[in-house]
Amino acid sequence: MREGVNPGMASGPLGPTLNHRIIIPIYIPETTGYFSRALEVLDLCLASLRKTVQGRAAVSLVINGACPECRALVERESGGGWIDRTVFNSVNVGRVNAMVAEARSAHEALITLADADALFREGWLQAVEQLFAAFPECGFAAPLPHPVMYRRHALSTLFGAWVGGLLSEAKVVDDADLDRFARSTANPDCFGPVDRASQVIVRRNGYTACVGAGHFVCTLRYEAVRTLRPMPTPQIMGPPANERLDLPPDMYGFWRLSTTKAYVDHMGNVPEPWMGDLVKRLPEPDVAPGGSAEIAPYRQPVASALDWAIRRRVGDLLGRRLARKRRLCAARGEGRS
Predict the structure, then answer these.
(1) Dist. CA 101–CA 228, nearest whole Å
(2) How many of the other CB atoms lie within 10 Å of CB of 302?
(3) CATH number for 227
(4) 104-140 pLDDT, tens per residue?
């Protein structure tokens, strides 16, 4: 039987909470073959994350079945006090399943989902939060541009931006940013002449964002996370599983945007010397715990009230028309602004 009164009953209100959470799933089952340098990559990822977000955002690590060396590395980082939650799954439940389960239990206004081979650059957190402030219709964003993605799961964005007179094209992304990402995927030609010549963008009050975003690192509003299905997918990873993450926000009318500059790099499974040099140059964080910025509230686009079938059809037509224009301009060697 209980004796006395639980001290928690007499405690005051909870202290200040952060407004942004970063969730990273980790799968390193061994340290041989494909995973022979995975611990080095993870170490760089976590070091860059700590230096760029400590004090400004909460961090969750979800381990999807791990070798002893991986568990030791994660426990060492958790012992440093900057990681808010560490979840150990005994088996691999899948990349998207792990992220969505943790995201749906979060309460922060913004929730970033990132792979464990992401290398974070200084200012990425502020840049993505600024994007949501400039475009409060946005519910899905990335801190790196991916010009090919303007037609993929961004049909509500194309439709809403066109209705609002914000849709245009311009050369706003540096080729060097595209080159770094392309090389990291072992597909140096993933961005063709059309994607490099111009990008599909939205502009408002002097701020520019690219239409579309990848999901290698992506940030969702709390409201957009609520649209994700609670039931897991049977796939470990790949396109069928990714649909669970990508499609619902578009169906519910959330805009999908990305920054015009690459604030995050993809390391793959082979770290290179410049990656370690970048982490060493990152300044140590000087923000006290609880220093999270206020997040601009979500503004539902008027156009999202229309049926999804209408938005999808019109958005697809706009995307096709933009594709034709961009191909013609690239063939003529013209940029657009």
Answers:
(1) 10
(2) 12
(3) 3.90.550.10
(4) 999 999 999 999 999 999 999 999 999 999 999 999 9
The answer to whether 253 and 304 have CB atoms below 8 angstroms apart is yes
Closest CA to 233 of 65, 96, 102: 96
Phi/psi of residue 271, each to 5°? Answer: -70, 150
Rounded (5°) CA angle 187-192-194: 160
Q: Which element (helix H / strand E) includes 264?
A: strand 264-266
How far apart CA 298 and CA 219 sit, in angstroms, is 14
Q: What is the pLDDT of residue 12?
A: 65
CB 44 within 8 A of CB 121: no
Which structural domain, as residue segments, surrounds residue 100? 16-332
**What is the spatial distance between Cα 292 and Cα 126, in angstroms, rounded to a whole number?**
10
- Residue 7 belongs to a domain: no
Contact of 33 with 71, CB cutoff 8 Å: no
Q: Is residue 157 part of a domain?
A: yes
Q: Is the pTM of this model over 0.85?
A: yes
- 10 in a structural domain: no
Q: What's the order of all strands across the beta sheet hosting 207-211?
A: 85-89, 58-66, 20-28, 110-114, 217-221, 138-142, 255-258, 207-211, 199-204, 167-170
Q: Are 269 and 41 in contact (CB under 8 A)?
A: yes
